[in-house]
Amino acid sequence: MEATAIVITSGKGGVGKTTITANLGMGLAGLGYKVCLVDTDTGLRNLDLVLGLEQRIVFDLVDVARGHCRLQQALIHDRRNPNLYVLPTSQRCDKTALKPADMRLVMAALRQSFDYVLIDCPAGIEEGFQVAIAAADQALVIVNPEVSSVRDADRVLGMLQEAGMRDVRLIINRLRPEMVARNDMMDVRDIEEILGVPMLAALQEDSQVIVSTNRGEPLVLDKRAKTGKLFEEMAKAVSGRQICLVAMPGPITFMGRIKALFA
Known about the structure:
single chain; alpha/beta
């Protein structure tokens, strides 16, 4: 059976795509699935840093696409889990180094060896975005509960629809319960209503995520961390082992002017 390819994307940068890719991938690997994480943010790669693998890169995605090495030479095996591999991209080239056709060829090879391939998409909707979604079956759109992030996500959803992507879900990241309770931040239901896409998970702001990222240790490995456990639940939901969503309750209303922007 071929791998399921899931692109993890957003409209703007800094919303948590790479951190979620790393933790979700480690979570799926922990469930026994063979997983490959592909960094497509050419020129600005960070997935290797989040996983603490930056010292082990020899070849990369661009090298594979250009025929400078075999795919197996570029794959990095994460020794913390025998099921997890990473395919980094180049830090020397820019986003024009890869074309959608290159990604389709590399993905065709990856599909034969893995159960899941998670594609860490660069910010924006230009060349890098088109490359990242070229061979994906599903999309997870990361959005923060901020007006700019939601509006950018709305644009990305439109482009995914234009590309024929039908299996799309939201991950709402960095919710702050105290602000939601004061009606100062959009609630998960506000965002779902605006974007019209089902939610997979909602994650609260957690300083432990920053600490784990700086250390190169995905939080999902910490069995004591609440957010780490939520990443495990997300992995189960993605794999179909459970259907419940990871969500945070909150008030259903928010400022009317926000919704009016998307009317």
